[in-house]
Write a structure and sequence with these properties.
The complex is a heterodimer of chains A (810) and B (499). Chain A has 810 residues and is of the alpha+beta class. Chain A contains 23 helices and 35 strands. Chain B has 3 helices and 34 strands. Chain B is globular. The chains are: A alpha+beta (810), B mainly beta (499).
């Protein structure tokens, strides 16, 4: 288990450290840091107040009522003894159990048999042992249950506020929790058929519901996969699992037919997706399987209306038929947690409360409604007055004190404060900075290498000079949200919360930053266009290894290009492109501009200009959407997609451009409705299953446009003017841009939008040409969030052949 | 196998409890007469076919993805696919007319052309629009079919629900559009709602006489799939959209409350303007989801000239139908023809060289053919099979015409089996055969040339489906058993007297 300690308020720690701008960082002595850390972890500041010791003010510990619920079995006696010492642990535990409320009895939790191996693998790949000792992890089985542990792994924040911890996806949390608690495993005897569970929940959409960690309403083993196992008529999900004995190696086709949706996985790979809130419909998928055992999993959802489910297979020597129970083996794995602690003895609990008050537990732990007294002022002497005697609450206090006295003589500077915080938050348990820290060998061993990138693709990034490399805002974002940007790294960044993230960003900037780090290359459209060519296939081929805006690279998957402008400080970016090996010896990033002359620097500036457009940069040539994806990626011409658009109408056309600005024309209402940037559209809702889903833009910066003030001049003053309009059709120009023909009253216009590259992302130039009648235009300077630059400006009447130009900037 | 089955049929008492399995010859036997030719497609060409139009050597294909492809040299060994247009909204029909391609999108009838001849569409005109959409996926729009009077006909699917843009009028209707009219929008004329009560009218087409027919898919208020003429003012049975009958534009009188559970003959008698189909297509005996159809007016398929060829989106087969006018109304029979296509068939069209294009997609529904989309064609091998050519009604029975002369010795009454049933008109999804019963055949008179056999059948009642099998009959030359030897005749009415 992770060493238990009480975190220190960053703000107060920061206040005690002097900033040394521009100065090279001088690392504090390791002994001094160790002493600071020891004082922080012991929580000396709970009782011993003093100016220097402001840094030691403890944060809140876990809520005691919540904490005790982690202790089935002995109610926490062993835990208290180990972590808080003293011989009053049984009394304290009795009191804690009395305030914790009754734990549910030891009901078994069914887990997927595949979860254990997956959990073990994840434990290694996520580098858990960077911080956790194996023994501590294993002890969890003696005290808690799967649902609680999985909930913690999904979202640790409510359980241990302020303690950085990675967040796992629900299925991962389920698997890791299963592995950690495997000592609780009770396995039912294998039997023919399919293990099934029913989950009662409202099914509103055709999409796959999250079932991990939910309590099933019914379960069993069935000879056939069937919708009738639902424990009620409507709104439930069924999950079937079994080991399937595949009789022969070859291509196997699986069919799911259902009302409503169904999915089928083989060995954790989705083979059939049959989504739709609709009468019985079928989808199928084919997968090559070796003869032998394969895990099959089927999920079925029922919303309202009729229900049906059939799962069939067909393969070498097997005609299409329902998955036979004779070839399916169900093994149900049940984790049975320890029994809840016995109801506490009232006297022991009363003694425990008294002990807790004496120990001043409330100075760290939430006291509300627990019977704990609010802690009074510290009864002990100020830190400066201490002379190193024993402490009644902290074993080994003398040693802590004597080390601290020496350390406190020299206040921490910014670099020291940063280093202490990184030790405290466990950063250096994974990362190296200035040659210190890094993963322990036991954790390194479990790491997986996803791409052929050597240690660069396995180990967390070296944080030496990270403040010069990354923009402070980026550091803040990564730390606050735990954002991971290296697709090849299985390790995950634990979030540290907004407050600390902000502090870290300032520290890294102060310690590592240099003047000129943020000098940007002036943007020009020409530079950006050259940059696009350079990153493309046929240029410097950056997209061979770097994805762009979620589109996969052609070879190994490095870091996405579209985030690099937001991420890297401009000076470092230029340096990095010119001399990657000097900045990171051994990197797989090739040195492509080795002359370092004016031409090389111009190339690098062009790439910087192109990168500055982020996700809205023109798409590099050579990229394509992967097989099976429905994402529309305009590369060499505009793409048109007719669809239902959410909030608009059932008759819309979305137009995407390679310049990465896109628009939606609401044909039913004859108006330009949306403009947006970046990624265009995922056509899955119109191109898969029975389709007809409401689509929304994939990209960013969507502007919902207000109507333009266009009307039929001849109908001025009549109600018919503005709303009597319709799309008459469209013509396509040689570049593939549509010209919308729209009738407004008795006038007709031709409405065209063309993208234009500009700093911060392309803009739209809209031309409205009058074809017939007289158009009255009165255009506001804004439409939604977009600024409009209109010429001719002001109110005007346009005759046939005349046009209006509007530039949309947003 | 086939012979053994025939023998069994002769020996066993004729009292089936249900229509029973059709003695289907393996698809390989069908290949003797009709070849399936697959069109190889590049990987990026996803032809989930919604519409087909043939223009010379080129085939135009619009897809459910909203693309319109031009396939150059489609019937040659090296077809070339070129994207001609995109951004259409689930276009489910295509018609070449007057130099334009007419195309039904969900919310409009459009026409498209390539003015500058550079090989891609550059002009799209909205011909008509204005029928509202609720946004439910099932509100498909099929067509157009061009009628003799120059009007374009579209069929509008009924939705499952009315989300998210609100319940829409005219769903489950056939509408027609007059070209170049003087409607509200200048040259763009409003549509005219002409027939109500459609369910999932996946095929709409033009008969040789210029009248319009459609296919409907089995489901609620549609006991089994059907093929019916569309005539102004008719109600085809599905009550989803009948409130629209009360709107002033409606050409269909409001049929009143439609009661669930009537026998189909009672429904036809009591519901105003109720139109019986020309052909009931018995569910699972002959496909499940009929879609596009064409008449073979050119004799592309040998002896079957004049008949209707229809694709089925589930069973991945093309079946045929023959029609006759009895009592002033169309009725007729359906017959198996060619199974084994690789995916569900949505559209069929005659190629310039006389083969039958089959446009395929099964996305969202599944089909017997396992491919999810594609393009195949049927090529007549110019070998005439021995089979039932056409069944027509006689006042006392049926006339069975054969493709080749029948061996008179085999054409005894015992060689034929007749079974009939009816359906309920109800809200439940589909309907099994009701009042299923065998009919005694007490006379079989063969014509002098041996090509026709008149059957006298006992206890004939109108408004029923008659299954006719001729398993015991053999051809005069070669003593061949019939190719399929089965027909389902929809006997809405009997001819007035002996012919």
């Amino acid at each position: 288990m992770r060493a238990l300690w009480l975190p220190v308020a960053v703000s107060t720690l920061a206040a005690s450290c002097s900033r040394t701008p521009g100065a090279a960082a001088t690392a504090p002595a390791p002994e001094a840091l160790a002493a600071w850390l020891a004082v922080a972890r012991a929580g000396c500041g709970r009782c011993h107040a003093a100016p220097t010791e402001a840094a030691m003010a403890p944060e809140r510990g876990p809520d005691l009522r919540e904490a005790v619920r982690w202790h089935r079995g002995d109610g926490g006696v062993a835990f208290l003894q180990r972590h808080h010492g003293g011989d009053d642990a049984p009394d304290l535990a009795a009191w804690l159990v009395s305030i914790g409320g009754r734990l549910p009895p030891a009901a078994g939790q069914h887990v997927s048999p595949a979860a254990f191996a997956r959990g073990e693998r994840l434990l290694g790949e996520l580098g858990c042992q960077a911080c956790h000792a194996r023994a501590g992890l294993e002890s969890l089985a003696a005290r808690t249950d799967h649902r609680r542990l999985a909930a913690f792994l999904r979202d640790p924040a409510p359980h241990r506020p302020g303690v950085p911890h990675v967040r796992l996806e629900p299925a991962e949390a389920d698997a890791v929790a299963a592995w950690l608690l495997r000592a609780q495993l009770t396995t039912t005897a294998p039997e023919p058929g399919f293990a099934w569970q029913c989950f009662e929940r409202r099914i509103e959409t055709a999409e796959l519901p999250e079932l991990e960690g939910l309590e099933p309403s019914a379960s069993g083993v069935a000879p056939v996969i069937d919708a009738s196992l639902g424990s009620r008529e409507h709104h439930f999900a069924l999950r079937f699992e079994a080991a399937l004995d595949v009789p022969a190696t070859g291509d196997w086709t699986f069919v799911c037919g259902s009302d409503d949706s169904s999915w089928l996985w083989i060995d954790d790979t989705l083979v059939v997706r049959n989504e739709g809130l609709a009468p019985h419909h079928r989808e199928q998928g084919t997968v090559r399987l070796e003869a032998g055992r394969h895990e099959v999993r089927v999920v079925f959802t029922q919303a309202g209306g009729g229900r049906s489910l059939e799962v069939l297979w067909q393969g070498p020597g097997v005609d299409e038929q329902p998955l036979p129970a004779a070839r399916a083996t169900a093994t149900r794995s049940v984790l049975v947690p320890p029994a809840p602690p016995a109801p506490p003895d009232a006297e022991a609990a009363a003694r425990g409360l008294a002990a807790a008050n004496a120990r001043r537990c409330a100075s760290c732990h939430a006291p509300a409604d627990t019977g704990l007294a609010e802690p009074g002022p510290p009864p002990a002497r100020a830190w400066s007055a201490l002379r190193g005697g024993p402490c009644p609450q902290v074993p080994g206090a003398e040693a802590i004190w004597s080390a601290a006295v020496a350390a406190f003589a020299q206040p921490l500077d910014t670099a020291g404060a940063l280093q202490l915080a990184m030790l405290r938050d466990g950063c250096l348990s994974c990362h190296v900075r200035d040659g210190r820290g890094g993963l322990p060998p036991v954790a390194k061993k479990g790491l997986a290498e996803v791409e052929d990138l050597g240690d660069e693709g396995r180990l967390p990034p070296d944080l030496t000079a990270v403040g010069r490399r990354l923009r402070p805002a980026w550091i803040e974002q990564v730390l606050a949200e735990g954002r991971s940007v290296r697709p090849y790294l299985r390790l995950r960044m634990p979030p540290v919360g907004a407050e600390r993230a902000h502090q870290y960003a300032a520290w890294f900037d102060a310690v590592d930053g240099r003047p000129g780090d943020d000098d940007e290359v002036p943007f020009t459209a020409e530079r950006a266009q050259l940059g696009q060519k350079l990153v493309s296939v046929g240029g410097r081929n950056c997209v061979t290894c770097h994805p762009f805006a979620g589109q996969k690279a052609l070879g190994p998957q490095g870091m996405d290009l579209s985030i690099q402008h937001a991420r890297l400080r401009p000076a470092w970016l230029r340096e990095w492109l010119l001399e990657p090996n000097r900045l990171r010896p051994g990197t797989r990033m090739p040195a492509l501009w080795t002359r370092g002359d004016a031409a090389d620097r111009a190339d690098v500036d062009a790439i910087a200009a192109w990168l500055s457009l982020g996700e809205a940069a023109p798409v590099p040539a050579g990229l394509a959407v992967p097989k099976g994806s429905y994402v529309l990626l305009p590369t060499d011409r505009p793409r048109l997609h007719g669809a239902f658009l959410k909030g608009l109408s059932a008759r819309c056309v979305a137009v995407g451009t390679p310049e990465r600005v896109h628009y939606a024309y609401d044909v039913a209402h004859a108006r330009l409705a949306w403009i947006w940037r970046g990624a265009f559209l995922d056509a899955e809702g119109t191109w898969s299953g029975r389709a007809g889903k409401l689509l929304e833009p994939l990209g960013t910066d969507r502007v919902v446009l207000e109507d333009l003030g266009l009307s039929d001049a001849s109908a001025a003053g009549t109600a018919a003017g503005a709303d009597d309009r319709e799309v008459l059709g469209r013509t396509m120009d040689a570049d593939g841009h549509p010209h919308w023909r729209v009738r407004i009253g008795s006038a007709e216009i031709e409405d065209t939008l063309r993208p234009r590259l500009a700093s911060g992302g392309s803009e739209f130039v809209r031309t409205i040409r009058v074809a017939k009648g007289t158009l009255h235009a009165h255009i506001a300077p804004t439409s939604g969030e977009a600024r409009l630059d209109v010429s001719p400006a002001g109110t005007c009447d346009l005759q046939p052949g005349q046009s209006l130009e509007i530039v949309y900037r947003w | 196998m086939v012979n053994a089955l025939c023998l069994l049929c002769l020996l066993l008492p004729q009292e089936p409890a249900s229509p029973g399995p059709v003695p289907k010859a393996p698809a390989a036997d069908e290949d003797v007469y009709v070849q399936i030719v697959d069109v190889p497609l590049p990987e990026h060409v996803v032809l989930e076919v919604g519409g087909l139009a043939v223009r010379g050597e080129d085939l135009f294909v619009c897809t459910r993805r909203g693309e319109l492809w031009r396939i150059e040299g489609a019937e040659t060994a090296t077809p070339r696919c070129m994207l001609w247009a995109e951004g259409l909204q689930e276009p489910l029909g295509l018609l070449d007319h007057d130099g334009w391609l007419y195309c039904a999108q969900r919310g409009e009838l459009s026409r498209l052309r390539d003015r500058d001849g550079d090989g891609v569409m550059d002009e799209l005109e909205t011909v008509a629009s204005g029928w509202p959409l609720s946004g439910n996926y099932h509100e498909y729009c099929f067509g157009p079919a061009l009628a003799a009077d120059g009007t374009f006909w579209l069929t509008l699917n009924k939705p499952f629900g009315d989300e998210p843009f609100g319940r829409a009028d005219w769903r489950g209707w056939a509408i027609r559009i007059a070209p170049g009219g003087t409607g509200r929008t200048g040259p763009y004329r409003e549509f005219e709602p002409v027939c109500a009560g459609l369910r999932s009218p996946a095929g709409v087409g033009t008969a040789p006489d210029g009248s319009i027919f459609y296919t409907d898919n089995q489901g609620e208020w549609c006991a089994t799939s059907k093929f019916a003429p569309l005539e102004v003012g008719d109600f085809h049975g599905h009550p989803w959209g009948i409130e629209s009958c009360k709107l002033p534009e409606s050409r269909v009188a409001f049929p009143g409350e439609v009661k669930s559970g009537l026998r189909i003959d009672e429904a036809a008698r009591t519901i105003p303007n109720f139109r019986l189909p020309a052909v009931w297509i018995p569910y699972d005996l002959l496909g499940r989801s009929p879609a596009g159809f064409v008449w073979d007016t050119a004799g592309n398929f040998g002896p079957f000239r004049g008949q209707v060829f229809c694709g089925d989106q589930y069973s991945s087969e093309v079946f045929r139908m023959s029609l006759e006018r009895v009592g002033g109304r169309w009725q007729g029979a359906c017959y198996p023809f060619r199974r084994g296509l690789k995916s569900g068939i949505t559209r069929v069209a005659w190629g310039s060289r006389g083969s039958l294009w089959c446009g395929l997609t099964n996305r969202g529904w599944g089909s017997l053919g396992a491919a999810t989309y594609g393009l195949q064609r049927l090529v007549w091998r110019d070998v005439v099979p021995f089979d039932l050519l056409e069944v027509t009604a006689r006042d006392d029975g049926f006339r069975l015409r054969f493709t080749l002369p029948v061996d008179a010795a085999t054409a005894s009454p015992a060689a034929f089996t007749v079974t009939s049933w009816t359906y309920d008109h109800h809200e439940t999804y589909g309907c099994p055969p009701r009042e299923l019963r065998p009919h005694a055949v007490d006379g079989a008179r063969i014509s002098a040339d041996g090509s026709e056999v008149d059957l006298r059948v006992q206890d004939l009642v109108p408004t029923r489906v008659y299954e006719l099998r001729c398993d015991g009959v053999r051809s005069r030359d070669g003593a061949r058993p019939p190719w399929h030897g089965i027909a389902w005749y929809t006997r809405n009415a009997a001819p007035a007297g002996p012919r």
